[in-house]
């Protein structure tokens, strides 16, 4: 009887669909949609160069990493953006400020000024991720907010180079989760609800071939991004120095 009872015990992976429902409900508030406004560069070889440059819009995804309004996203999402608009799960939009960006790692930090932000998503360890592990992606494909796709980790520690760029991605995660335009910068989440990667890009004309930047490049001690910690420490020091200077001036 005991053996039969053990055999009837459901497997966590057998019912992974239920896990995705719970994970999405917990994570959705922390994921944001990003829209950018850009000005196309003027072509000085064009006889009509004196016309106003045309404005273009871009879309992407990001997610909160702390309660101070700091959002992690892809550098290419906000690259050369004149204006960044962040839309929260409740439909409210805020102007975003690009705090820092790294075109080599394709990582950027933006911040919104909001009195209350959702809980940050916990960062896991991409180094512990295994091939075949179930994962979920949340993104903003083609402007369709909070869309999820599911799949597995197809491979780890991949290296990918673009033929038309000097950019080389190393130690990235390969997944068959659908990563469409607009999903870049969104989280790749495991069944524990932890972010193990950030959606980066998908190879065109190849279904089921998406790539994510591993959490190992995003996290540091206490599961916080290294660059965020460095930035906050610097900004807090400057803020304290400014307050002291202001107080002395007012005396």
Report what the structure shows.
- The chain is α+β, with helices and mostly antiparallel strands and 251 residues long.
- It folds into 2 domains: 16-41 and 55-112, Thrombin, subunit H; 126-221, Thrombin, subunit H (Beta Barrel).
- It has 4 helices and 12 strands, in the order ααβββαβββββββββα.
- The chain has helices spanning 2-8, 16-27, 75-78, 226-250; strands at 31-39, 55-64, 70-73, 83-87, 93-102, 107-112, 134-139, 147-161, 168-175, 187-190, 195-202, 210-214.
- The strands form 2 sheets. The protein has a 6-stranded antiparallel barrel. A 6-stranded antiparallel beta barrel has the order 7-8-9-12-11-10.
- A hairpin with a 5-residue loop joins β2 (55-64) and β3.
- The longest helix has 25 residues, at 226-250.
- The radius of gyration is 21 Å and the shape is globular.
- The relative contact order is 0.16.
- Mean pLDDT is 79; it is low at 1-12 and 220-239.
Features:
12 strands; hydrolase; Chloro_Bact_Ser_Proteases; single chain; alpha+beta; 36% strand; 251 residues; Thrombin, subunit H; six-stranded antiparallel beta barrel
């Amino acid at each position: 009887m005991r053996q039969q009872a053990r055999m009837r015990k459901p497997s966590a992976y057998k019912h992974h669909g239920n896990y995705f429902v719970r994970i999405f409900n917990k994570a959705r508030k922390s994921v944001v949609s990003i829209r950018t406004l850009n000005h196309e560069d003027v072509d000085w070889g064009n006889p009509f160069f004196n016309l106003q440059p045309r404005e273009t819009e871009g879309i992407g995804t990001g997610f909160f990493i702390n309660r101070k309004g700091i959002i992690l996203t892809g550098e290419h999402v906000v690259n050369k953006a004149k204006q960044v608009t962040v839309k929260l799960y409740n439909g409210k939009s805020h102007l975003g400020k690009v705090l820092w960006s790294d075109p080599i790692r394709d990582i950027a930090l933006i911040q919104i000024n909001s009195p209350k932000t959702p809980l940050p998503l916990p960062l896991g360890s991409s180094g512990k991720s295994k091939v075949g592990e179930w994962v979920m992606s949340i993104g903003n494909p083609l402007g369709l907010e909070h869309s999820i796709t599911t799949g597995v980790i197809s491979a780890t520690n991949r290296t990918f180079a673009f033929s038309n760029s000097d950019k080389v991605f190393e130690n990235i995660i390969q997944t068959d989760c659908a990563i469409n335009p607009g999903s870049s910068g969104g989280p790749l989440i495991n069944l524990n609800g932890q972010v193990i990667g950030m959606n980066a890009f998908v190879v065109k004309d190849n279904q089921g071939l998406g790539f994510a930047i591993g959490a190992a490049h995003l996290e540091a001690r206490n599961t916080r991004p290294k660059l965020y910690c460095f930035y906050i420490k610097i900004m807090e020091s400057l803020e304290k120095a400014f307050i002291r200077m202001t107080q002395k001036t007012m005396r």
